[in-house]
Amino acid sequence: MNNLDHLYREIIMEHYKNPRNKGLVTNDDYKSNRIKNPSCGDDITIQVLVEDGMVKDVKQEASGCSISVASASVLSEIMIGRSVEEAKKIVDTYINMVTNKEFDESVDLEEAAVFSGVKKFPARIKCASIAWVAFKDSLE
Amino acid sequence: MKENPWIKDFPQLNNHLHYFDSAATSLKPVSVIEQVNYYNQELSSNIHRGMYYESQKATELYEEARESVANFINAQSNEIVFTRGTTASLNLVARSFGVNHLNQGDEILTSELEHHSSLIPWQYVANKTGAKIKYIPLSDQGRIALDAFKATISKATKVVAINHVSNVMGYLTPLKEIIAIAHEYGAVVVVDGAQAIQHIPVDVKSLDADFYAFSGHKMLGPTGIGILYGKDDLLSEMEPIEFGGDMALDVMKTQFSWKESPIKFEAGTMPIASVIGLKAAIEYLKNVGLDNIHQYTKDLYDYLIKKLNELDGIELYNHHSDTFIFTFNLKNVPSHDAISYFSEKHIALRAGQHCAKLIHDFLNINASLRGTIYFYNTYKDVDVLVDTMKEAIDYFKKLGF
Ligand SMILES: Cc1ncc(COP(=O)(O)O)c(C=O)c1O
User: Fold this and answer.
1) Does B339 contact chain A (CB < 8 Å)?
2) Which has fewest Cβ within 10 Å: A30, A54, B205, B296?
């Protein structure tokens, strides 16, 4: 496989074409965070419902490249049902992985692990992390 | 096919880089690099103050560069202000001239084709002064047409802030006619020339431009140096926006006065090496000849467009670029996905909105890929580009885009 094939994994394409938890809610119990990347036109909103220290629900709306759209979708899917502490840990691990830093391999990133190919494309790190940064901000 | 005689002058070009990003910044020829090095190695010293040989020589070269720029655009050297770039030049006009001359009810006429540098400073002025921004409606193609301009300008128009060439479409604005009409209405015309100066002869006198801004780094010169041309009477009555060393004439405890234009706008130590390099860039451009550049580049562009017209999987947004910028997308592929394919093949294009969001809104797209043909590109570069486009179209189609 070449670098591009490492980037465009089947799972990513699958999420790109069928994004999960898509569509925003008008419910003030959800914390909403929108991030736009003016240089590339990515526009991503993540909504998080936290109850009793647990991520009860995640909604997302993303437009942009396949990596940013798929990463929002994967994020939403793997975060629902986690404790806030666990969720933060996964975000940190994920961000370290895509930015090619040392990361805690004992943390199970589940489907998000397929984004490891991004580290060969420094210009795409933002695409892969934008939804995750928005999500983490909503937990603070 | 004829050998490109200029490539050898550009050390960054090697066998595997295909550089189509000249609209973002041009490559630098050896003569420019050598002049920058000459200052750094042999003349490092500050200008306008040292009494020793190096400083005097550097001052001489700095002021010669100003003359050379003036010559290049048919201005007087006291009408040439050195800045950090087009952005800084346009901000200087907005913050000094704009803020002090506009009032509630005045209008600033601009276009959706503008680079953010030619737009946001005027939005700032509008917010500060209560003036209003108005847009010249673009033609279906996305051009600024004279009729639309005539229909939009009014007695309330005080400033026309407009590009000479669009950095997304490569369209040439009918500037001379626009300026003549604007002057009938008493408006001042501020031209963003960042994408024109490296392609077409610019004569500010014949255009009758009030202000004309451009960047050294897009015309083979170093980064960090930009130019603001302003008519002498306008520059003379404008206040500086930066204060400090070199620009001051007399300094007392509670007051100070400033020197004449252009020095009053050049506070602090300027990028001397870059100014000296800029002069070499102008000399290089003159030696090659803008007409030769135009002819070679146009032929190569026509060759490219002919090939692109035969391709099915791309959407080209400007079929008739005047400065050989081509802006496109692979059908159904977001530009940031596509760009990774090209980057892997050492093809330098740009993806995104190119600091010009409004024209993307106009085109009803999120982002685009942009390339530019310049005179150091070759027929081989174009072949590689088009072949890679074909491969990319197949690649993304197979992935399911
Ligand atoms: C049309 C246009 N205006 C302004 C600019 C800004 O130039 P600079 O970044 O050199 O200030 C650019 C280049 O990016 C441009 O293409």
Assistant:
1) yes
2) B205
Q: Report cis status (omega within 30 of 0) of the bond before B262.
A: yes
Pocket test for ligand 1, best of B117, B120, B166, B327 (most atoms within 8 A of CB): B117
Distance CA B175, CA B136 (A): 13
DSSP E strand boundaries for B69-167: 80-83, 107-110, 132-135, 157-163
The residue range of the domain holding A29 is 3-139
Which residue in chain A is spatially nearest to B366 when comparing CA positions? A41
CA B132 to CA B106: how far, in whole Å? 6
Q: Are residues B177 and B162 both part of a single domain? A: yes
Whether B1 is in a domain gets the answer no
B163 CB near ligand 1 (under 6 Å): yes
Q: Maximum Cα–Cα distance for chain A, whole Å? A: 46
- Cβ–Cβ of A124/B344 closer than 8 Å? no
Q: Which domain holds residue B364?
A: 7-20+289-398
Together in a domain, B16 and B89: no
Please identify, among B286, B304, B325, the residue that sits at the C-terminal boundary of a domain. Answer: B286
Please tell me whether residues B281 and B205 are part of one structural domain.
yes
Q: Are residues B122 and B166 in the same domain?
A: yes
Average pLDDT over every residue of B149-175 = 98
Note whether B270 and B392 are same-domain residues: no
**From CA A86, how far away is CA A106, in angstroms rounded?**
13
One domain, residues B279 and B298: no
CATH number of domain containing B308: 3.90.1150.10
Interface test mutation site (partner A, options B340, B346, B359, max chain A beta carbons within 10 A): B340
Q: Kindly report, residue by residue over B282-337, the tens digit of the pLDDT.
A: 999 999 999 999 999 999 999 999 999 999 999 999 999 999 999 999 999 999 99
Let me know whether B39 and B160 are in one domain: yes
> CA–CA separation, B25 vs B27, rounded Å?
7
Strand partners, B254: none
Which CATH number fits the domain that encloses residue A39?
3.90.1010.10
- Centre of ligand 1 to C-alpha B108, Å, is 20
3-class SS of residue B188: strand
Tokens encoding A65: 């490249």
* B118 within ligand 1 shell (Cβ under 6 A): yes
> Chain A residue with minimal CA distance to B335?
A65
